[in-house]
Amino acid sequence: MRQLYTLIFSALTPLILLRLYWRGIKAPLYRQRWQERLGFYRTAPSQNVVWFHAVSVGEAEAAFPLIKLMQSQHPTQRFLVTTTTPTGSARVQAVLADSVEHVYLPYDLPVIVARFLRHFQPKIAVIMEKEVWPNLFAACAAEQIPLYVINARLSAKSAKAYKKIPALIKPALACIQQIATQTEDDQQRFIDIGASAQQVAVLGNIKFDLSIEQATIDAGLALKQNNFAGRFVWIIASTHQGEEEILLALYPALKAQIKNLLLVIAPRHPERFEAVKKLAEKQGLSVVMRSENCLVDDGCDVYVADSIGELKMLYAAADLAFVGGSLVAVGGHNVLEPAAVGVPVLFGPQMFNFQEIAEQMLKAGAAEQCDDDLAIAKAVLHIHEELSFRQSLSSNAKRFVEQNQGATARVAALLAQSLDA
């Protein structure tokens, strides 16, 4: 089955590269360093690196505290971090800088994977969340590289899809030394698709151990005081196409009742910054882009955060947050960041990627879920009008994050078993 997978992947590779070029029209970073995806590197070969793979921004942010902890515990060890997206790459370079090596993940073809492993010679391989790459996993097993999947999650939908190709998935899972899942449900789903019970352990969700420096909070508060003074700031974060239209349509009616309302939009993908600006202007709203460094006057309606890596700071500048990816079939994004900052959290009905966290937050009174635009408008008004309710949401959210921390240390101890062997 893996041979058929390889044949199909090989046939599709020209189209994959063409798509990369096409995406580069709107997001030029996709055209840069494409050779790394084929296993060609400008740097000198490395040896015995600890290799982490994080697909994009969300996975990278979750991995940072773990990587920093392991760097402190193993100060002479070299680390490599791979990503798939340019935005993930930018965050790795911004947060970890020269303390790690960084390249894009190679395409999952045997000859490309072999070049990658020869160049970096990983001591261990650590994959974030749920990615399964049959050729890469098989090559790690052949080279006797301990392979871990950590902070692993598997939705019912993904598990159902994997069950349809057991001849491909089960051998890939057999190459993994340990799968550290977020929840018991994730653990059972991995077992259901072919992992052995001995392979899978519940260690919790390292996203709870997010690190928000006081300097980040202070910068957000300064932005609120100096540029958003006197405004009730509602941030809609990590939004996708189709969501801004819904939320912008709510703005005029909400503005009529909240006179000092300011809508901050932080789109998930940088290539959409300009499109979101034009969408707001098309609706007759006054827009300021963060990159323009302009003061937000009383006539400004929308502030577009056309920057990368500032979301935590922007949460600290807000009075209320709606986390996107939840009004469309994306599955939601990280609701723990605004919770940890202490801003009231709203999200939509599509939270299947964060289902358990969403359910736990609702149970703890740490967030509100809104099924449609009318529910969102009602929640915004309620939070604006009821200060005690707003404060309750904020304090419950911070407490919820703090009570669920500790997974990072447990995962670090698991990985140390191979590093110290």
Short description:
The chain has 421 residues and is an alpha/beta fold. Helix content is 48%, strand content 14%. The mean pLDDT is 94.
Rounded mean pLDDT is 94
CATH superfamily of the largest domain: 3-Deoxy-D-manno-octulosonic-acid transferase, N-terminal domain
Structural class: alpha/beta
The biggest sheet, with number of strands, parallel, antiparallel or mixed sense and barrel status, is: 7 strands, parallel
Low-confidence runs of at least 5 consecutive residues: none
What fraction, in percent, of the residue positions are helical? Answer: 40-55%
Rg, rounded, reads 22 Å
Key features?
421 residues, alpha/beta, Rossmann fold, 2 domains, seven-stranded parallel β-sheet, 17 helices
Notes on the protein architecture:
This protein is of the alpha/beta class. It folds into two domains: 2-204 and 406-419, 3-Deoxy-D-manno-octulosonic-acid transferase, N-terminal domain (Rossmann fold), CATH 3.40.50; 214-403, Rossmann fold. Helix content is 48%, strand content 14%. Strands 3-2-1-4-5-6-7 form a seven-stranded parallel sheet, sandwiched between helices. A seven-stranded parallel sheet has the order 10-11-9-8-12-13-14, with helices on both faces. Helix 2 (57-73) runs parallel beside helix 3, helix 2 (57-73) crosses helix 17 (407-419) and helix 10 (243-257) crosses helix 15 (373-385).
What topology emerges from the helices and strands here?
Elements: H1 2-26, E1 50-53, H2 57-73, E2 79-83, H3 86-95, E3 101-104, H4 110-120, E4 124-128, H5 134-142, E5 147-152, H6 156-163, H7 166-174, E6 178-181, H8 184-192, E7 200-202, H9 214-226, E8 232-239, H10 243-257, E9 261-267, H11 273-282, E10 287-289, E11 302-304, H12 311-316, E12 320-323, H13 336-341, E13 345-347, H14 355-363, E14 368-369, H15 373-385, H16 387-403, H17 407-419
Parallel strand pairs: 1-2, 1-4, 2-3, 4-5, 5-6, 6-7, 8-9, 8-12, 9-11, 10-11, 12-13, 13-14
Helix pairs in contact: 2-3, 2-17, 4-5, 5-7, 10-15
